[in-house]
Amino acid sequence: MTDSQDTVMPTEPTAGVTGPRRIIQVGETRYTLLGTAHVSAESARDVRALIRSGEYDAVAIELCDSRHQSLSNPDAMHNQDLFEIFRQGKAGMVAASLALGAFQQRVAEQSGIEPGAEMRAALEESREAGLPLLLIDRDVGVTLKRIYHNVPWWQRFSLFSGLLGSVLSRQDVSAAEIERLKEGDVLESTFSEFAAESETLYTPLISERDRYMVLRLAEDAPPGRYRHVLVVIGAGHMKGMAEEFEAPLPEAPTPEREALEVTPPPSKLWKSLPWLITILVLTGFAIGFSRNTELGWQLVGEWFLINGVLSAAATLVALAHPLTVTATFFAAPLTSLNPTIGAGFVAAGVELYLRKPKVRDFSTLRHDVTELAGWWRNRVSRTLLVFILATLGSAAGTWIAGFRIAGALFGSGTA
Q1: How far apart are CA 45 and CA 119, in angstroms?
Q2: What is the DSSP letter of 206?
Q3: How many CB atoms lie within 10 A of CB 374?
Q4: DSSP labels for 98-167?
Q5: Residue 8: which pLDDT band, with cuts at 50, 70 and 90?
Q6: How far is C-alpha 235 from the geometric centre of its chain's CA atoms?
Q7: Which residue, of 91, 196, 364, 407, has the fewest CB within 10 Å?
Q8: Rounded to an integer, what distance in angstroms lies between the CA atom of residue 187 and that of residue 197?
Q9: pLDDT reported for residue 4
């Protein structure tokens, strides 16, 4: 795919189309890149007009499988097993997705235009015309994880606290934010102020995805398979994708595409840290009892009290059921010494048993999370909060109690 030619898109027979277009000719296949705005009725009309023109025999869109599922089936959350989400450690990712969805919903309510209307138009029109639909974007979860691993550790907290703050702290979406959505999707607009100044953020958010989408086209719509492919992308990706088309592409694009889906594993130190903490705490107990039985029991008591109180208090902040709070109080000190299970998992499991989400909670979830109070009002989002806050409370309790034990044993404590 190295012999390409960038030409000007003819205006007929779709003269009414206003969005920017670029044609990339590769062998016998023409790829028309249509730059769209994700908050624009005009972009949706452009997509419909182009597909209805009959010029294309395939349509590629800037969506991944999960976002395609969310767009085509907004109630897909109904079918998810929440307990399984907690067991697999995906609660944080689901919460982040809900937060981004809340941002979308507020934009829709303020502007009167549903973000992603042009993608929905592509779905509907390609199905109506019987054209193959190609999903070429990278999974949003992979992109978030690669962003997380690409930025220095000291920037991660400010980055994601800024993300959550931007989508949760205010009801009104500013005009500037809506304008940014006209160049990129929700994810891009949320991080745009950071990405503009950070190459480590720009790379996984924008440039990697430019490359990824071209590689997916090389896999799913290689030269010769289709005559003319309409590629519906955010306008912010047009320049980068055109440059990627002009650059030499590998004969076998799959290995490179798969490499862009890899998320770095946790470091060995990070994976071993929970076990190391457990060993240190148990060793501290043993030293305490070897010195003085009263000191040993004092250390054990402080460990249980600090862990239990902080984790239980965190679930109180989430307005968990009283029995969930009680169960978390007793479970947190024990789970903190067992790296295979967390206090958040126990707390969320008890909360799900006591307050099983109803159909109404799933049906109103997208609207409820557009306001801060809605996260506590809806049983689905509140259970996510119970999980996250109990986990954070237990982590804080572990470190505070651990330092307390160290101080008591080595002379800086008051025990």
Answers
A1: 11
A2: I
A3: 18
A4: HHHHHHHHHHHHHHSS-TTHHHHHHHHHHHHHT--EEE-SPPHHHHHHHHHHHS-HHHHHHHHHHHHHHH
A5: very low
A6: 22
A7: 196
A8: 16
A9: 47
